Amino acid sequence: YDMRPKDLENLLVGHKVVSVSTDDNSLVLDNGTTLILEDTSDCCAWFDATLEDINLEGNIITALKVDNLPDGFAITILSESEEIGRVSVEGSLGSGYYCSSVNLIVVGVG
């Protein structure tokens, strides 16, 4: 489904990222849950996700900070006040009917 920042926040806060794959844009959490940020396109709309600077040594995730950008948004992952990672989502709504973000696939909720 189209990922909203709140969806990611609900799954990340209170957990720790134990592994990251930039090949398939996935994060594995300490409870065994795998989150996959899947690029998507439909008709004239498209969105791509990029995982940036995920610090596996960070503490438990306490909050996310969302910055709206002209063609998407950026989510900063925080542990207390320290930045431990970033997810960038950019694309085009096209007509606004087809998709509005990347797909979030949740596997094995722990």
Would you mind describing this structure in some detail?
This protein is mostly beta strands and 110 residues long. It contains one helix and nine strands, in the order H-E-E-E-E-E-E-E-E-E. It has one helix at 5-12; strands spanning 17-21, 26-29, 34-38, 40-42, 45-52, 63-69, 72-79, 82-92, 103-107. The strands form two sheets. The protein has a five-stranded antiparallel beta sheet with strand order 4-5-8-7-6, covered by helices on one side. A hairpin with a 4-residue loop joins strand 1 (17-21) and strand 2 (26-29). The longest helix has 8 residues, at 5-12. The protein is globular and about 40 Å long.
Task: Briefly say what this structure is.
The protein is mainly β. The protein contains 1 helix and 9 strands; from the N terminus they run αβββββββββ.
Series of H and E elements? HEEEEEEEEE
Helix content: under 10%
Number of strands: 9
What value does the Rg take, in angstroms?
Answer: 14 Å
Strand content: over 45%
- Mean pLDDT across the residues is 84
The poorly predicted ranges are none
Spatial shape: globular
Distance between the termini: 20 Å
Biggest β-sheet strands, sense, barrel = 5 strands, antiparallel
Structural class label: mainly beta
Individual helix count: 1
Strand ordering within the main sheet: 4-5-8-7-6
